[in-house]
């Protein structure tokens, strides 16, 4: 595989860019693999990559029912941050951010990670106090974070609605190392890097059945034939419950909801930060892409669905939230919107754990946070599969936590899925 560097870009400029290799192979499935990761999104590909890179594992396959980048990996709003405070969560997301900071070099692929700062607005004295507590804890752990008063915020982002706001702005909590990355570049980079280490990426390979003995999986029935596996990892986001039932394991504490995202026409540089706010029932986040489009989103659609299309109520809700904070967007044209299928766990936190089957491992329940967590998710999931025990930073992210009453959710939203929003 041709490496990307300045010399190769210059050299191929003289040949019409015709001498680049394919970014990853399209192999035929083998009869058997040591490890199969089901799900060719960011979490599945990152897991395969770190299994090969960190643990020197061979004979690995990633099974993707569609094409690489066609699922949630290409359907999010690209935000990366590590502003968490609880033990385990803080270390996990800070590790993920550090992996993002070097990811382009590690993968030899430009994931377009832009550390433009994550600016979380607050609208009341109590919200300011809450942000101060969180960000002070972050600073004690060595993670960057600061509070901007109203004057500092106005100097950095002058075109928010400061004068006639539905929700008066008092300031913001800011993590400058945070930002965003290009989602499809990240998934392509992991696919290319995993393939270069010998991982077979099997596209259009849908799992249609699971063959198991009493206590383990023996093989997977797929649209490209039966494939045996010594170990199997599930990393399929909102479709986890479907595979779980195929394996004869009953129900999971997960609901599949859709989350919409929106992209506008391109405009001149307007917003050099990621801006978010949540107050009074509103939930909104926005940034500007390198092409000039405004990329934004808000809440779930609030009903269970496997659809990847949006609907008008959330379009209206997100547009109102945008106008409340940035009235200058009032005449901008919306180009497209879509939905990703979110695996919403009952406590708002993820699973990286072993399962009732001896050779099956679970990566699911990412709620709103899957994109920013992708590098660390793959890193810790690979560690679990290779070493048969969870790392201490994810040891409570298992299915048994509900029986034990372990609280690992930053928001303390409780066991009711209706409280995820």
Question: What can you tell me about this protein's structure?
Answer:
The protein is of the alpha/beta class and 421 residues long. Helix content is 28%, strand content 27%. The chain has 11 helices and 18 strands. Strands 1, 2, 8, 9, 10, 11, 17 and 18 form an 8-stranded mixed β-sheet that branches. It has an 8-stranded mixed β-sheet with strand order 5-6-4-13-14-15-12-16, with helices on both faces. Helix 2 crosses helix 10. The longest helix has 18 residues, at 370-387. The protein is globular. The model has no long low-confidence stretch (mean pLDDT 93).
Which structural traits does this protein have?
421 residues, alpha/beta, eight-stranded mixed beta sheet
Shape: globular
**Major pleated sheet:** 8 strands, mixed
| Helix share bin | 25-40%
Order of helices and strands: HEHEEHHEHEHEEHEEEEHEEEEHEEEHH
Structural class: alpha/beta
How confident is the prediction overall: mean pLDDT? 93
Tell me the Rg in angstroms.
22 Å
Count of DSSP-assigned helices = 11
Terminus-to-terminus distance: 44 Å
